[in-house]
Amino acid sequence: MSHKRENISSGSSFEDAYGYSRAVKVGETVYISGTVGIDYTTGTVSNDPVEQLHQIIKNMSPSIEQAGAKLSDIVQITTYVTAPEIFQVVGPELGKIFADIRPTNAALVVAFPVPDVVVEISAVAIIGCGD
C-alpha cells in the first residue's frame, strides 16, 4: 500500500530558504512543523509568552485545516521554551487550549535562532480522530 505525501506551505520565506514544509500529510496523518508566535501580518512577536502561544495556534491552524484536520485531531505536541519559567506560564494555557483534546506532550528547554521567540510548538494530528 502506498501513501501519497502532500507538502503544505504557509507561504513563509523560511520554508523555501530552509527546505521544509509547514505541514506534511501522509495518509490520514498530518505532521506540523515547529511553529513560533510571530504575527506574520505585522512581522512582530509579543513579549508575552501566552500571546506567543495563541499566535502559534493561529499560525498553525490554516495548514492543519488545509490538510483536512482540526485542532481536536492533534494527538501529540512538542513544546519548546527558552526557560523552565516560560513553561510554567504557558503550561496552564496549553491546559485550557487542549483541555478536552489531551494530546501527548513533551516540553524541552532550548535556544532559538529567532530574536524574542520564547515558545515553539510542533504537532502531529490524525484526521478525524477528534470528532
Give a brief rundown of this model.
The chain is 29% helix and 32% strand. It has helices at residues 13-18, 49-66, 84-97, and strands spanning 5-8, 23-26, 29-36, 38-39, 44-45, 74-81, 104-109, 119-126. β6 (74-81), α3 (84-97) and β7 (104-109) form a beta-alpha-beta unit.
Description:
The protein has 131 residues and is of the alpha+beta class. Helix content is 29%, strand content 32%. The chain contains 3 helices and 8 strands; from the N terminus they run βαββββαβαββ. It has helices at 13-18, 49-66, 84-97; strands at 5-8, 23-26, 29-36, 38-39, 44-45, 74-81, 104-109, 119-126. Strand 4 and strand 5 (44-45) form a beta hairpin. The longest helix has 18 residues, at 49-66. The chain is globular, with a radius of gyration of 14 Å. The mean pLDDT is 94.
- Looking across the biggest beta sheet, what order are the strands in? 1-2-3-8-6-7
| Unreliable stretches covering 5 or more consecutive residues | none
- What is the H/E order? EHEEEEHEHEE
The CATH topology corresponds to 60s Ribosomal Protein L30, Chain: A
